[in-house]
């Protein structure tokens, strides 16, 4: 029979579990939030906020195997709430993106310009459309999982994705022309 | 020609087709349309290109992930409350419905115990009860609280226990032994029944104890004979106690267990009502046999008043029962009553530890033939010096004492609390 653990051991184990949980999901959470808010400082703050929310409500997590989905939903909602509150989305970390060793400086400049233009185009989308498009086309999540993250039906997510693609394609067409 | 009638799919459907989010039927239709529509093919190609461009946004900026992880952990440690160690669920504060359910269960249990067959007589109306008793013993009027099997001229020399304030204070006692006591008790009962309904049992007991103490020095001959209390007590008044129907000393002597059990089962209410008087003649015949049976009793649980007074407080058990038994001649049996002295006083001090038995009592119980009777009563046959004493003790503290005076052959049944 397993011996009962003392409160100190319980606390230590809880801290260790929290650290493992953070380390396991931090990159993914940060990436989700960063895709939505578009800048590192806000993404860092919101990542911390998302983990605090998740660990404060860990009792709500019934199935530990669904922790990633659950945490992703919290992260996306946190980011969307932030964007809705501040009515801004700032993509200002282009220069922090890793340089590709194989490209020339000219190619890097062109890539940076293209990225900036695309990020501007993302600002034209609604919050839901932007989040759905990023999660689907940037993060590569399936539509059903995007629906879970956005807490809406798959049909609604498909509608958001289709509208976002149509708008974004028109935006990109305008640049080429 | 056919292109004029072609209906192009919606642009959103083409976008979903490029992303692979369409169902099989929609996908088949669009694929079939794309085979003949260059415009839609171009649109789909644009969506494919868009997806490839969006995937370029997946690059993350260079970050110090360890620093970010440490800062997150630090904030979490500060702001997230630690999980409390799981405490047993029963330590949690019970909800309202749990308390209500427990109370209802307790009340049901109390009601069931009170409606037990042994107490059915208690629930009957007093008048019907009185008639039933008179039918069972038509020739002998009831003597309150005392089953006088054999009246005789013997008189107990044990003084009343009024000089033991501790004992009286600890266990106020109602003895329904004689006419004087019955009269006093009935007065107190009437007062209690007509007074505030919220008076507690302890208050009633205190009043009865005072009544017992005040009548301790009263001469028995001066106490008037009171009629049956069962006919005068208000039906709704609680605390009116009705003793079991007395079927005669012969039956009681034939079945000692049944008799004592019946006496014990009549316990549970506040005031003892006089039991039906036994057939004195038959009781006189059976008294020697009863005395012999009493003499065979192994141990005594009751003590005399002197013994109880001499015992220290530490040795004193949880409940001390003490009081005086008075007898007076029954008016309907004048001839027999003339043989009986006007007053016979018996003082008893019974000790019983109802909640828990100590080692001494356990040893006594082991050496004592204990008959576990039904409904939680236990009969303790006890021999107290000369008079045999039976004590039937209920779990809630009610005690029924039956004493047999070996000299007179008188059997006295007293119910106390």
Helices and strands in order, then pairings?
The complex is a heterodimer of chains A (177) and B (417).
Chain A: H1 7-37, H2 40-56, H3 67-86, H4 105-123, H5 127-138, H6 143-150, H7 154-176
Helix pairs in contact in A: 1-2, 1-3, 2-3, 3-6, 5-6, 5-7, 6-7
Chain B: H1 11-19, H2 24-34, H3 38-55, H4 65-79, H5 96-114, H6 120-123, H7 126-136, H8 165-170, H9 179-194, H10 201-214, H11 249-254, H12 256-265, H13 280-295, E1 302-303, H14 305-310, E2 319-327, H15 334-339, E3 344-352, H16 359-367, E4 371-372, E5 378-383, E6 388-393, E7 399-404, E8 411-416
Antiparallel strand pairs in B: 1-3, 2-3, 4-5, 5-6, 6-7, 7-8
Total strands of chain B: 8
| Helix content percent band of chain B | 40-55%
Total strands of chain A: the figure is: 0
Helix/strand/pairing category of chain B: alpha+beta
Which spans of chain A have pLDDT < 50 for at least 5 consecutive residues? 1-5
First-last Cα distance of chain B: 113 Å
Overall 3D form of chain B = elongated
Radius of gyration of chain A over alpha carbons? 19 Å
Oligomer: heterodimer
Helix and strand element order of chain A? HHHHHHH
Describe the structure in your own words:
The complex is a heterodimer of chains A (177) and B (417). Chain A has helices at residues 7-37, 40-56, 67-86, 105-123, 127-138, 143-150, 154-176. The model of chain A is unreliable at 1-5 (pLDDT under 50). Chain A has 177 residues and is mostly helical. Chain A is globular. Chain A has seven helices and no strands. Chain A is 73% helix and 0% strand. Chain B is an alpha+beta fold and 417 residues long. Chain B has 16 helices and eight strands. In chain B, the strands form two sheets. Chain B has a five-stranded antiparallel β-sheet with strand order 4-5-6-7-8. In chain B, β5 and β6 form a beta hairpin. Residues 84-89, 121-129, 136-185, 190-201, 215-284, 295-355 and 367-387 of chain B have low confidence and may be disordered. Chains A and B meet through α1, α2, α4, α5 and α7 of A and α1, α3 and α4 of B.
């Amino acid at each position: 029979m397993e011996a009962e653990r003392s409160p100190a051991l319980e606390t230590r184990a809880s801290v260790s579990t929290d650290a493992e949980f953070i380390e396991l999901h931090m990159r993914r959470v940060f990436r989700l939030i960063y895709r939505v808010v578009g800048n590192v400082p806000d993404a860092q703050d919101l990542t911390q906020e998302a983990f605090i929310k998740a660990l404060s409500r860990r009792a709500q997590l019934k199935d530990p195997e669904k922790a990633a989905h659950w945490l992703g939903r919290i992260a996306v909602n946190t980011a969307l709430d932030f964007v809705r509150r501040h009515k801004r989305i700032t993509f200002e970390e282009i220069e922090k993106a890793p340089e590709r060793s194989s490209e020339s400086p000219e190619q890097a400049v062109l890539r940076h310009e293209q990225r900036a233009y695309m990020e501007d185009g993302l600002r034209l989308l609604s919050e839901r459309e932007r989040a759905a498009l990023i999660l689907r086309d940037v993060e590569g999540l399936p539509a059903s999982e995007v629906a879970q993250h956005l807490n809406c039906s798959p049909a609604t997510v498909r509608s958001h994705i289709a509208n976002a693609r149509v708008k974004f394609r028109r935006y990109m067409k305008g640049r080429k022309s | 020609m056919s292109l004029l009638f072609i209906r192009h799919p919606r642009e959103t459907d083409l976008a979903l087709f490029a992303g692979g989010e369409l169902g099989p039927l929609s996908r088949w239709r669009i694929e079939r349309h794309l085979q003949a529509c260059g415009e839609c093919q171009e649109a789909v190609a644009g969506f494919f290109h868009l997806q490839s461009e969006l995937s370029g946004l997946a690059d993350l900026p260079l970050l110090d992930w360890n620093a970010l992880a440490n800062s997150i952990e630090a904030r979490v440690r500060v702001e997230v409350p630690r999980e409390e160690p799981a405490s047993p669920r029963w330590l949690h504060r019970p909800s309202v419905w749990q308390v209500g359910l427990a109370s209802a269960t307790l009340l049901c249990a109390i009601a069931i115990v009170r409606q037990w067959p042994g107490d059915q007589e208690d629930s009957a109306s007093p008048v019907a009860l009185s008639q039933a008793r008179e039918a069972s013993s038509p020739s002998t009027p009831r003597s309150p609280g005392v089953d006088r099997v054999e009246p005789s001229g013997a008189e107990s020399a044990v003084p009343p226990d009024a000089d033991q304030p501790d004992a009286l204070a600890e266990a106020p006692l109602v003895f329904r032994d004689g006419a004087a006591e019955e009269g006093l008790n009935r007065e107190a009962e009437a007062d209690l029944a007509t007074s505030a309904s919220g008076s507690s049992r302890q208050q009633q007991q205190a009043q009865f104890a005072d009544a017992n103490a005040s009548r301790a020095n009263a001469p028995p001959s001066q106490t008037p004979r009171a009629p049956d209390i069962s006919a005068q007590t208000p039906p709704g008044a609680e605390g009116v106690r009705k003793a079991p129907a007395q079927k005669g000393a012969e039956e009681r002597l034939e079945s000692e267990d049944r008799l004592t059990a019946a006496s014990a089962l009549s316990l549970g209410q506040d005031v003892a009502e006089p039991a039906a008087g036994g057939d004195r003649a038959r009781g006189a015949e059976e008294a020697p046999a009863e005395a012999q049976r009493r003499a065979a009793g192994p141990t005594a649980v009751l003590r005399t008043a002197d013994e109880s007074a001499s015992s220290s407080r530490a040795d004193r058990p949880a409940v001390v029962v003490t009081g005086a038994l008075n007898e007076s001649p029954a008016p309907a049996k004048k001839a027999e009553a003339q043989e009986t002295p006007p007053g016979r006083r018996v003082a008893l001090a019974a000790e019983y530890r109802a909640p828990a038995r100590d080692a001494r009592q356990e040893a006594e119980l082991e050496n004592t033939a204990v008959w576990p009777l039904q409904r939680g009563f236990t009969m303790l046959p006890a021999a107290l010096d000369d008079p045999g004493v039976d004590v039937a003790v209920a779990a809630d503290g009610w005690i029924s004492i039956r004493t047999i005076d070996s000299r007179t052959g008188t059997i006295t049944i007293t119910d106390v609390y």
